[in-house]
Amino acid sequence: MSGYSQSPRLVKGGIVLVDPESARVRRVIALQYNPDSLTRTLQVQTPGEGAERAEALRLTGPAVETLSLEAEIDAADQLEFPDRHRATVEAGIAPQLAVLEALINPTSSELLVRKALADAGTLEIAPMESALTLLVWGANRIVPVRVNDFSITEEAFDPSLNPIRAKLTLGLRVLTIDDLGFDHKGGSLFMAYLQSREKLAGQAATVGFDALGIGGLP
Predict the structure, then answer these.
(1) Which domain of life is it from (predicted)?
(2) Is the dihedral of CA 73, 68, 23, 20 positive or negative?
(3) Over pLDDT 70: what percentage of the chain?
């Protein structure tokens, strides 16, 4: 047998961390299993209440898009081959969880630097800029995001109480050029994402008034 298979290669969703200044990739995080669903909510940006009538049809910026997904991490496959996965035997899935938790925490070294500056009498201490977080959902959907909320339900443990199975819920907000600006790496990635959505919209079939049961507009 040649081992050739016509089955499509499984593409995993995941998160990529990018240095906001150099655009160097710091880390790639692939989800162990692709979630069954991805919930998207888009909130339109308009002038708001009290605006003049002439402003009613104006859009002030890109819609605010929030995403929610549930993922699972399970050490069962790795524990079947303990010689190949010593880290999993020793710590379960705790390392994978810690990587995801790092998305929403400053590092201990950053906190120590801020404390040292405060102790030295620095009046204004600006938080250090974190890595640019990208949600990668296939080649055609790469978007800059901020993690708004993150919950973990640890469901099973090894004899040392290391978690070996967990469910995760990630709440993300897409960052737009309103958040990052056009010149930021994340801003250019958002524009590429927006343009890809516009291209997809152009591929949608068009219909006539007869599909709506009317002959035209009054």
Answers:
(1) Bacteria
(2) negative
(3) 94
Find, among 38, 193, 31, the residue nearest to 100 by Cα: 31
Distance CA 156, CA 92 (A): 10
Residue 1 has pLDDT above 50, yes or no: no
Residues 6+ apart with CB under 8 A from 39: 67, 68, 69
Q: Which residues contact 32 (CB under 8 A, 6 or more apart)?
A: 71, 72, 73, 74, 96
Q: What is the pLDDT of residues 199-217, one digit of tens each?
A: 999 999 999 999 999 998 9
Binned at pLDDT 50, 70 and 90, residue 87 comes out as confident
Which of 2-11, 58-67, 117-126 shows the lowest mean pLDDT across its residues?
2-11
What does the longest C-alpha to C-alpha distance in the chain come to? 75
Report angle CA 42, 48, 52 to the nearest 5 degrees. Answer: 140
CB-count exposure of residue 77 (10 Å: 0-12, 13-18, 19+): exposed
CA distance 95 to 85: 12
